[in-house]
Amino acid sequence: KQEVTQIPAALSVPEGENLVLNCSFTDSAIYNLQWFRQDPGKGLTSLLLIQSSQREQTSGRLNASLDKSSGRSTLYIAASQPGDSATYLCAAPDSGGGADGLTFGKGTHLIIQP
Amino acid sequence: EPEVTQTPSHQVTQMGQEVILRCVPISNHLYFYWYRQILGQKVEFLVSFYNNEISEKSEIFDDQFSVERPDGSNFTLKIRSTKLEDSAMYFCASSPLAGGPGNIQYFGAGTRLSVL
User: Fold this and answer.
1) What is the pLDDT of residues A35-47, one digit of tens each?
2) How far is A46 from chain B (nearest CA, A)?
């Protein structure tokens, strides 16, 4: 059974800093991993999907990496802005094919100080 | 941009009552999912649905829960007799593929269920 852990649980940094959010997963036989953003009381916005054959995926100031062998993914946020404040979740599918449900981490609660 | 739509945004019910949460997935998607998030906890998978059948379900999805695609656009989650512990945010998601590297699940804004 897939388990996903995210470190740190919370992070507060000044605006403009580059930062890294970490995600680890136990079942490395995944075919992809998704990063989401969740604003308080809101839904989940998909940020990046990184496929198992890829090592990195980029969208604007966001860059996600995936290392299946070590069971880790990172989300790098460049030049952080106050609008980046949110909870960031990573999610990995349970292996085995079919319409797989995603297993989520608890998230990293990010605060960017103006 | 197409999106997953969920109604209502907030549902309040009495313990023991039946509730139906509604979702309209993205129109060309074939796979549908329900998740829940109890306040302060992880998002948890409940069930996936394809071709009018449950594809996969978690241990949370017991006999109190059921899903249905009553027409070509709606996807519903029914909780037969609500308990206090069913209070949570319920998210619907859809994807164009069942799995595989390129599969992205798109989530709705959620329905907050409050059981009193």
Assistant:
1) 999 998 888 999 9
2) 7
